[in-house]
Each structure stands twice: as structure tokens, then as C-alpha cells.
Design a protein that fits this description.
The chain is an alpha/beta fold. A seven-stranded mixed β-sheet has the order 1-9-6-2-5-3-4. Strands 7-8 form a two-stranded antiparallel sheet.
């Protein structure tokens, strides 16, 4: 969404937030953390992390809980302005920039801004390619000393809003939603470009595996629903036979 006027951006973001707060109050959310202490919604986390979120699923972690202690890196494009406005309205700090173009000075500024917050990054934004890891998040982990927590989100029923290079996943009302956090990946300090690429591949693999787990939970949920429907049908048929 590209809204030029700051006033219109603020109003649009406010309407967006109100609609999504109402939507998320109807959902059945299941949050799973593979490692204790990595829940981004916790009040007093034991340490600060870099959370890795794919661009197409970013709505789910944004509205799944209270943003007490998180900040997000958002792009400097027009779309990023609207996203930043939305995030600020839900209590999330924002830092404008890109993991693909960040130098030592920007890292220091980033650390100052988020010294008491987690940092959420969409490593395939703002222009893709879809679900392809950029080396920037490994660079940030190496230079900041923060571990990367891979994440995944899935919905039993959802809409997919088509964009220019990726879709945006929106849960449908009253559906079940799964939000998973994987084991933190720690990147050694001061790595060179080749080593950073290797760690980016490791993060990519972790994200892919976690997404498979999230999709399996959806399949299990659908299978369970189908089984319950079959049980009800069988029970009805049995009653008819007894009559």
C-alpha cells in the first residue's frame, strides 16, 4: 500500500490495526518455542534475539501477542513507511533500513536503538526473491552477538493477498493458527563473506524445516477435524440403523 500523505498513512494504519485486532481475537493461536526463553512476547526475556520472519507471514507474529519488547527493521521504500506506521501503532519500535545494505556505523546505530529489544527481520524483503535468505541477517548476528531465532507460521484456513513478488497470508476468522520458534543459531563474530554465506544457508535450512513442521500441524489439524466429522456421521448412521 502506497500512501504519500503522513496523515493518510496514519489513518490507514489505524484502520488496518483495528481490523486485525478484531480478527485476531477470533483466532485459536498456538505458540510453540523449541528453546525455553525465546518467546518474543515474554515480559522479561533472558537475552535479546534476532527473529527471522518471512515477508509473506509477517502479519501473524505481529498480531499474535503483545509487542512489549520488540523492534522491527523495515524498508525505506513506500511500502515500508506504511508497515512502520502499523507496527508503531501496535507498540513495536521500528528501524528503517535493509539487511542487504548495512555497514558498521548502521549496526552501531541499530544496537543503540534496540539495546533493550528483540529485533525482527524479514530477510527476503522488501523485493524478494520470495523466501530466499539474504546474507544480511547472518552479518547482523555476527556483528551484534545476537543469536538468530528462526520462525514459521501457518493457518488452517487463510486468505492469500497477491503482491508483486509474494503473497501476504491473512488468517480467516475463527481458524487455528500455529506460530513456531526454532532453536537459536549463534553466528561467530567478525566472519568473512564466505563464512557468512554458509551461516545464511544454515538459517535458510532451519526456516525451511520449521515451515515443514508448521504445515504438518495444519495437516494434522485438518485430519483431526475430518476424523471428528466422520465420527459424527458414523454415529448418526448407527442411530438410524438402530431405529
Amino acid at each position: 500500500m502506497r500512501v504519500r500523505s503522513p496523515l493518510l498513512t496514519s489513518l490507514s494504519a489505524g484502520l488496518f490495526v483495528a481490523a486485525f485486532w478484531l480478527l485476531f481475537r477470533t483466532l485459536r493461536l498456538r505458540v510453540r518455542e523449541d528453546t525455553p526463553g525465546t518467546n518474543p512476547y515474554a515480559k522479561s526475556p533472558p537475552e535479546w534475539f534476532l527473529y527471522c520472519v518471512w515477508h509473506d507471514s509477517m502479519v501473524i507474529p505481529a498480531f499474535a501477542g503483545k509487542q512489549r519488547s520488540s523492534a522491527a527493521l523495515t524498508s525505506q521504500h513506500a511500502d515500508g513507511t506504511f508497515v512502520a506506521a502499523v507496527l508503531r501503532k501496535i507498540g513495536m519500535a521500528t528501524v528503517r533500513g535493509s539487511t542487504n545494505h548495512i555497514g558498521p556505523g548502521a549496526v552501531r546505530q541499530l544496537l543503540r536503538t534496540t539495546e533493550d529489544k528483540h529485533l525482527v527481520i524479514t530477510p527476503d524483503g522488501p523485493r524478494g526473491p520470495r523466501r530466499q535468505m539474504s546474507v544480511g541477517i547472518a552479518f547482523l548476528a555476527s556483528r551484534t552477538g545476537r543469536a538468530v531465532v528462526p520462525t514459521a507460521a501457518s493457518c488452517v484456513r487463510c486468505w492469500k493477498i497477491r503482491g508483486s513478488w509474494t503473497d501476504l497470508v491473512i488468517p480467516k476468522p475463527f481458524t487455528k493458527v500455529f506460530l513456531l520458534g526454532g532453536e537459536p543459531i549463534r553466528v561467530p563474530p567478525d566472519l568473512g563473506s564466505d563464512e557468512l554465506r554458509e551461516y545464511a544457508k544454515r538459517i535458510q535450512t532451519a526456516m525451511d524445516q520449521l515451515d515443514e513442521a508448521a504445515q504438518q500441524l495444519v495437516k494434522d489439524a485438518k485430519a483431526g477435524h475430518a476424523s471428528r466429522c466422520d465420527d459424527k456421521k458414523s454415529g448418526t448412521d448407527l442411530m438410524k440403523e438402530r431405529e
